[in-house]
Amino acid sequence: MRVGVVTFPGSLDDHDARRAVHLAGAEPVRLWHADAGLQGVEAVILPGGFSYGDYLRAGAIARFSPVMDAVIPAAQDGLPVLGICNGFQVLCESHLLPGALVRNDHQQFRCQDQTLRVESTHTAWTSGFQAGQQVVVTLKNGEGAYMADDRTLDELEEQGRVVARYVGDNPNGSRRAIAGVTNARGNVVGLMPHPEHAVESGYGPSVDGLTFFTSVLNSVVRA
Amino acid sequence: MGTVIVDVMPKREILDPQGQAVAGALARLGATEFTQVRQGKRFTLEVEGEVTPQTLAAARQAAVTLLSNPVIEDVVSVRAQQDVEQVRAQQDVEQVRAQQGDQA
Q: Packing angle between helix A210-222 and helix A14-23, nearest 10 degrees?
């Protein structure tokens, strides 16, 4: 299986994302922000970092890059897409996911090992977990507070579209401690913490993150 | 050359940590009368020639598609600069008249 990882100007974690794809047993494919196509990949990852320097709003300029003109309709057609950190911000700005991410309520950049509870396993990227399973991955963000109005939040909860929640202290002021959400179809997932930094023993807090990347292999094989 | 001014503010119900940080610094400077600070953005969009109704319509479109995110921000004003300046000038005139009225 070929999984594309987009590099925007200012992406930081594209290398780690490609490594995670490789360790999961898939073939990582480099996609460039100025590319018009997706080279026939079967899934796409939008990595963490500071695309376009976070100018205007985090993810706002990346959302209008040429590669997103291909990613957005493909995601609407069911292509598995995972946005991590800045990638999550890009997905929200693209309206592929509801809500928005704003500056942490305590105004500080936070970098720590973070326990999450996987709330939904009905997505392309979390099908390998047990519902309610707790995992530990890296969290590192300055603008990671998930915001949406109450109606949207209620809808997400009712439809089982909250993918993961922070366990323990809320690290960034996200509403309802939301760490990740998915679209109605479950193929698009946005996640603020970084599973790609927790895929290899000896590096990062665990290898729990690997399951996000192996899940998508199974989802595509099944489809 | 004409200029359109677009003002964007964080929504009232969204926490504005940058505004809070500024409010904290103001208080430390002794400016304690300000109970809340919110920080927004101003864009100036320049065009060749005069600002027309079409220019303003295009600026409004730009304001809601790229310049703001409606989930967290409100576009509070899209105006031609000459109009903004005219309004200001009018307000200045009214203020001076009011002061003269007070003195009379």
A: 60
Which residues of chain B from 64 to 93 reach within 8 Å of chain A, CB to CB? 66-67, 69, 71-72
Residues 6+ apart with CB under 8 A from A222: none
The distance of B98 to chain A (nearest Cα, Å) reads: 41
Question: pLDDT tens digits for A140-178?
Answer: 999 999 999 999 999 999 999 999 999 999 999 999 999
ipTM for this model: 0.82
**A103/B18 touch (CB, cutoff 8 Å), yes or no:** yes
Cβ-contact A105, A193 below 8 angstroms: no
Task: Kindly give the pairing relationship between strand A188-191 and strand A178-182.
Answer: antiparallel
What structural domains does chain A harbor?
A: 2-222 (3.40.50.880)
Any idea what the Cα angle at residue A139 is, between residues A133 and A141, rounded to 5°?
A: 140
Which amino acid does the sequence have at A177? A
Catalytic residues of A: 85, 194, 196
0.80 exceeded by pTM = yes
